[in-house]
């Protein structure tokens, strides 16, 4: 077994390109009165403090390799004033020029002719704007904005052209990093409902631009997005001095669609992404999705703004579990967790630790496509640009970082590819469904309090093949698709049902 620890020492394009540059916004991963802000709601307390004894449970990994676990502070400090400025910048403006007219938001209903079984007739956007907003959010997998946004959902906002001064609509980072729980929108929660393919296709069509063709698959299932391939495509269009190229460099990248992580995890992580290649201290990597439009000098001008936005990320905390918790069972689970799981995922409570370990593919066993999908040439090109100047990507890292588990109840589905719908399935690999329909919303009606995660509906291969509605088909998660396998992380298989239930109960408290 080899486990690696990261160290800290280490003119505008066409409309489709402008669309691509906006995906993911500032997250390659609210302040004020937002419930995730440190000053408003503390994390739920550890059930009984930090009293586990070393002999209470046996680690799945054996003795800790010397020098592997970082016992320093688990979370970075942040500047509250900078975090407040970062929040204001993030939710209050567009960094990109508009792609669609403002009227497209209301006109796109003209294309809603493929209603699913339970859907009513589309509301009139003029007569009933509130009902229309809800139908719009449901259709494209968007969520209510917990900040002023001109009546638009998170992920879409009014924007002003950098060249002409004209106004219109553009997406922002919250299209992927803005989710909801039971109707409450949250900035920084991964969007598990997003249908990016449907959204782009219909907005492109309503503006009379013909059939939209992407050079790669954006998503085959709602709630997943191929942000990595988008970023790779954009960096190939830039020279080392950030000047735009007419044709992209022949840089190899073959990345799959993925789950969207929560921003609040960045306060603990030393690496930005699941593959452990990029230092989380980097401000510039948060700006890379702007590469389709901005000029080199604009990137430099915006760097202090994104430094503040990074401080905002560090200020976030997860929402508390909203349902009852069996505290006695959770305490038993804590002891088991600290013995079996903490060497990768850290400890929690008054004095938390987080090891920041990247686990090699042979050990973790989860789908390898994301970890293997970036070529050395592409990473080297990134490192040669302004983006990699201070925090270059690791050329040799091939594995996955074991993430912190803060707020894990709210971040289902699980694994980097979102393949596993519940924590029970994470800890019991034979039970994992391989072909299933995801729920139609994040209402708690669809939340499984026992297994902790989202309820899904297993379907047959014949049912999927008989499906003729592309929008309905994108609710289906098919683990045979590239990058979406459910295997790996089998460490919980040896647990008894009682042990598994106890660990799950403890995870509700994080």
UniProtKB/TrEMBL annotation:
Classification lineage: Bacteria, Pseudomonadati, Planctomycetota, Planctomycetia, Isosphaerales
PANTHER family per the UniProt record, alphabetical: BLR7738 PROTEIN, CYTOCHROME C PEROXIDASE-RELATED
Keyword Heme applies: yes
Lineage top rank: taxon: Bacteria
Presence of keyword Disulfide bond: no
UniProt keyword annotations, A-Z: Heme, Iron, Metal-binding
Naturally occurring in which organism (per UniProt): Isosphaera pallida (strain ATCC 43644 / DSM 9630 / IS1B)
Protein name: Cytochrome c domain-containing protein
Cytochrome c domain: residues covered: 328-510
MF (Gene Ontology): cytochrome-c peroxidase activity; electron transfer activity; heme binding; metal ion binding
């Amino acid at each position: 077994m080899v486990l690696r620890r990261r160290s800290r020492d280490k003119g505008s394009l066409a409309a489709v390109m402008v669309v691509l540059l906006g995906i993911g916004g500032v997250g390659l991963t609210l302040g004020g009165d937002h419930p995730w802000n440190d000053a408003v709601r503390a994390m739920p307390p550890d059930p009984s403090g930090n009293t586990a004894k070393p002999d209470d449970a046996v680690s799945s990994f054996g003795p800790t390799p010397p020098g592997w676990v970082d016992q320093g502070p688990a979370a970075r400090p942040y500047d509250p004033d900078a975090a407040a400025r970062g929040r204001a910048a993030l939710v209050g403006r567009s960094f990109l020029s508009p792609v669609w007219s403002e009227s497209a938001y209301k006109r796109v209903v003209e294309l809603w002719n493929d209603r699913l079984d339970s859907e009513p007739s589309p509301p009139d956007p003029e007569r009933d704007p509130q009902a229309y907003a809800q139908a719009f959010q449901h259709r494209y997998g968007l969520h209510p904005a917990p900040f002023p946004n001109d009546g638009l959902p998170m992920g879409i906002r009014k924007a002003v052209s950098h060249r002409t001064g004209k106004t219109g609509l553009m997406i922002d980072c919250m299209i992927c990093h803005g989710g909801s729980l039971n109707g409450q929108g949250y900035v920084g929660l991964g969007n598990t409902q997003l249908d990016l393919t449907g959204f782009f296709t219909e907005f492109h069509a309503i503006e009379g631009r013909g059939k939209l063709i992407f050079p790669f698959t954006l998503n085959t299932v709602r709630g997943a997005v191929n942000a990595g391939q988008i970023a790779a495509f954009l960096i190939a269009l830039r020279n080392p001095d950030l000047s735009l190229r007419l044709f992209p460099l022949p840089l190899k990248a073959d990345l799959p669609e993925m789950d969207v992580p929560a921003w609040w995890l960045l306060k603990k992580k030393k690496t930005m992404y699941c593959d452990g290649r990029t230092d989380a201290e980097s401000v510039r990597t948060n700006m890379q999705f702007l590469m389709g439009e901005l000029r080199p000098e604009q990137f430099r001008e915006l760097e202090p703004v994104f430094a503040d936005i990074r401080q905002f990320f560090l200020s976030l905390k997860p929402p508390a579990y909203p349902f009852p918790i069996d505290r006695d069972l959770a305490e038993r689970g804590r002891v088991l967790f600290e013995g079996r799981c903490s060497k990768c995922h850290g400890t929690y409570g008054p004095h938390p630790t987080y090891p920041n370990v990247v686990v090699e593919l042979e050990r973790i066993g989860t789908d390898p496509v994301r970890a293997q999908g970036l070529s050395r040439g592409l990473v080297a090109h990134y490192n040669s640009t302004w983006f990699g100047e201070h925090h270059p990507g690791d050329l040799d890292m091939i594995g996955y970082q074991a993430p912190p588990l803060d707020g894990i109840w709210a971040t289902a589905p699980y694994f980097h590819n979102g393949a596993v719908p519940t924590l029970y399935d994470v800890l019991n690999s034979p039970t994992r469904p391989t072909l299933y329909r995801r729920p139609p919303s994040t209402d708690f009606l669809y939340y499984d309090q026992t297994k902790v995660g989202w309820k899904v509906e297993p379907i047959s291969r014949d049912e999927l093949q008989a499906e003729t509605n592309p929008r309905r088909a994108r609710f289906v998660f098919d683990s045979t698709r590239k990058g979406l396998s459910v295997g790996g992380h089998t460490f919980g298989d040896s647990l008894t049902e009682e042990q598994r239930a106890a660990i799950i109960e403890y995870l509700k408290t994080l």
